[in-house]
Amino acid sequence: MKKRKVLSLIATLFTALIVALTAYVVVSIVIARVQDRDVSLFGYSFGIVMTNSMEPEISVGDLIIFTHEGIENVEEGDYIVFVAGEGFDSAIRGQNVVHMAEEIVVGEGGSLSIITRGINNAAQDEYPVTEENFVGLCVFHSSGWGAFFSFIMQYGILILIAVVALPFIVKQIIKIVRLSREGDGQAQNGEGSEDEK
């Protein structure tokens, strides 16, 4: 009996942890979208790739995870995330882009700029990345997780409502059913005792 109570407590705590973590992720996504900034979880940000400029390494719809490290930490060959500016299609301008750092240029006073290229593109990007539009260093990418996070980003508010409200609703339904059964049992017992009288 004691073992069953301990297992029940562990299951309850685990469920509460998953609900809290899911709520944290969904709330972070919703807030980031409202404020038009990168979603950041535990020091990492993520995004969904919108173009094929990094294929076959990174495809459209892939999830990328990046850290907000300084531009001085970039090495040639790294995949970096930056805000697209002049030289990019108007539909992409102002959005985060992930491209490969092909060359690091040290300017006057030690300022850094990075010449980038999408590995699927023949030519380098027209303008170098500077500290002003540098966002971070790509540390992970995945196709499967991309579909999952696209779904969460699209339906985040509905998921949040489901995560927070559904357990409460289910608990209330169970309570109503239990009370209803107890009421039926008492009514039947009462009827029987009246017949006996």
Write down the overall mean pLDDT. 80
Question: Radius of gyration over alpha carbons?
Answer: 27 Å
Q: Strand fraction band?
A: 15-25%
Q: Which bin fits the share of residues in helices?
A: 40-55%
Pattern of helices and strands: HEEEEEEEEH
SSE diagram, text form:
Blueprint: H1 2-34, E1 39-41, E2 44-48, E3 63-67, E4 79-83, E5 96-106, E6 112-117, E7 129-130, E8 134-142, H2 143-196
Antiparallel strand pairs: 1-2, 2-3, 3-8, 4-5, 4-8, 5-6, 6-7
Describe the structure.
With 197 residues, this protein is an alpha+beta fold. It is 44% helix and 23% strand. It is built from 2 helices and 8 strands, in the order αββββββββα. An 8-stranded antiparallel β-sheet has the order 1-2-3-8-4-5-6-7. Helix 1 packs across helix 2. The longest helix is centred in the C-terminal third of the chain and has 54 residues, at 143-196. It is elongated, with a radius of gyration of 27 Å. The model has no long low-confidence stretch (mean pLDDT 80).
